[in-house]
Amino acid sequence: MIHPDTELKFISHEIGYGVVATRFIPKGTITWIFDPLDQVFSPEQIRKMHPAFREILHTYSYRDHNGNFILCWDNSRFVNHSFHSNCISTAYNFEIAIRDIQPGEELTDDYGYLNVTEPFDCLPEPGTSRTQVMPDDLLHFSKEWDEKLKTAFKDFNNVPQPFLDFIDPEFKDKVKDIALGLREMDSIISCYYAGKDNVFD
User: Which of 69, 83, 88, 172 could make a disulfide contact with 128, Cβ separation 3.0–4.6 Å?
Assistant: First the structure.
């Protein structure tokens, strides 16, 4: 589920639609969380699908650490890529804003932590030499992303959290302790899926 203070908006002809903040979203805010309406598809299910449906999942789903594909039910699936993303996935089935997001600003993810099944060509961005998202980006950039997450978690308890009640019970106490500095955060590397199968070939 995407943060309630967002809307779907046309960005450009090159990019298409994206998710934009309608109000200020401070650093440390949960911007997206997995919820029961999100659909989970196994590779076996996808292989049996009509090509038209496989193409939709290829475009709009992400892959979790178990190798399953998640199709978000709301505007979450329109969040675009940026190598300088303002949101990052955590090991706790939610994403967090790693810096303040201003009204009218697009919410972005680095697709490098979403387990893409093949290299993904990207528009050039200043301040980075990366031009592609790769299936193994989590192995190369997890430490960098972890540091940004640790900094964001310091603000977790000081900002409004509309999704606090939706945190998986398995993680709720740990997340609370991490925000208080009582426990170490699990690395984003735990989101990595090591399989090499591409169900969309």
Answer: 83
